[in-house]
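Re: the 255-residue chain
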Amino acid sequence: MTDDILTIEIDDGVATLTMNRPDKRNAMCDALLDKIDGFFSKPPVDVKAVVLTGTAGHFCSGLDLSEHVARDAEGTMRHSRGWHEVMDRIQFGGLPVVSAMFGAVIGGGLELASATHVRVAEPSAFFQLPEGRRGIFVGGGASVRIGRILGPDRMTEMMLTGRKYSAEEGLALGLTHYTAGEGEALAKARELARKIASNAPLSNYIMIQALARIGDMSKADGLFTESLCAAITQTSPDALEGLAAFLEKRSPTFR
C-alpha cells in the first residue's frame, strides 16, 4: 500500500511503515500522524509485527514547525493529548513494533521511537530533545517514556542543554537496543520483527500489555499481575505446543 507521506509494505506477516517526507527530514505533521494512527487503529489481520522507519537518511526530525498552528492553552492541551493517544496505540495496541533509525531522531521523532518496543540505530542516528532551547516543553509523551528510559536527572540535562546523543551513546543510555552498520538498520529491524512474529501471539500480546504497566506498580501489585499473566499464558494451547516442541526437539508451530 502506498501513500504520499506513509508507505506500507507487508511481507510474511511483517508490515514496514515508512515515513515519507524526505524534503522535511520526515518531520511529523498532523496528516502523517493520522496515517500512522489509522494503521495502528485497525491493522491488517495477517500482520504479526511492525517495522517503523523513515526515508532519505532520517527517521523523524520532530514536529514540522513550518506547519505550526497557534493554539490557546486548551487547544495545545488537546493536541498534546491527541499525540498521547496515538503513542499509546503504538505501545499498547498489541503488535510488537521495531523502529529502524538513522539520521535525525529528534523531539517528536524520539517520542515516536520511544513508543516502539525494539529500537535499532545506524551510526548516523542522533537523538535530541531541543524543546527547552525553543522555550517550550515536550508534549508527545517524552516526559514519561523517555524519562523512564533515561531517568529524570539525565532527561533534565538533555532538555536544558539541547544536547545530541550519538547512536553509541544512545545504546549505552537505552534510547536504542541495537546498533547496525550504515544502511543496515532496516534489514536488522526486519530480522528482529520476523523473529518476534514467530513467537506465540498471546505471549507477545501479554508482554506488550503487562511489562510497562508492571513498571508503574508497587512490588506487590506487580508480582500479583505477573502471576495473572503467567496463568493466562502457561495454560494456553500455544504453551502446550511450545512444551511439546521443546521435548520433541523441533521448532514450535504457533497459531
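The first strand starts at residue 6 and ends at 11.
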